[in-house]
Hints:
CATH superfamily: Divalent-metal-dependent TIM barrel enzymes
Order of helices and strands: EHEHEEHEHEHEHHEEHHEHEH
Distance between the termini: 17 Å
Largest sheet: 9 strands, parallel
Low-confidence stretches: none
CATH architecture: Alpha-Beta Barrel
Mean pLDDT: 97
CATH class: Alpha Beta
Strand content: 15-25%
Number of domains: 1
Amino acid sequence: xxxxxxxNPLTWTNDDMPELxxxxxxxxxxxxxxxAGFAGVELGNKFPRDAATLGPILARHGLAxxxxxxxxxLLERDVDAEMSAAEPHLALLQAMGCGACVFAEVSRAIHGExxxxxxxxxxxxxxxxxxxxxxxxxxxxRMSSRGLRLAYHxxxxxxxxxxxxxxxxxxxxxxxxxxxxxxxxLAYAGGDPLRAARRHVGRxxxxxxxxxxxxxxxxxxxxxLPFLAAVLEGVFxxxxxxxVDFATVFGVLAEGGYAGWLVVEAEQDPAKAHPLTxxxxxxxxxxxLAARAFTR
Length: 296
């Protein structure tokens, strides 16, 4: 698979705060994603979840399905139970020809809680890691047998948020567990997307190209805002509108042989950040940098 650009529908309509973009139909999201230049999209809350329905809709817009989020609870249930819970999602991704599953452990997570400060987010004990890592490795092995790579999404407000936690996850899981490198979440967590890309490029299975507004991020951290409150303040934006050095990150990914989707993702309030305008900005910036990095 060559490098292709996709966008997450969070630009138009928010999964965690459904009132944001509630009035925007799926057809608008897809039509504008194509208009902005994207080849694919990730799943969102307005997407039908069966391939027989979704496939023709995406085909009508000339879009592929890049992947979709799955929130696991491997700290709370064994792999058999998790595979059973994940089956409808995995079956959809498989039927739609996806190569990776966006996968995040959401046990104890606070990212969807609107009044809980980020400083209260869960932190794993050594005993927790001893449960989570082998279960995730087994989960990834089972998914691999179906042609899907587990792409682990580190995320603010969850048990794997910091750069050190990403490092530990990669160290304690088998090679079947891939990494979803999310530049915005890692920057917000105080990490370095470039350093993480260099360290784990061989495990990167999917990329979310999210930018951060540095001043807004600093204020959110200073005020210890809940994650969703920071989103409403505008902590995230599309590539080209923030502080992340995508040119250098893309260069590291290219040198490491990454071949997959680059997904523009920036959850913002669509009433403040006009979706098509930002979709175009994110596409054009990422496309120009990717063309230079991946065609050397």
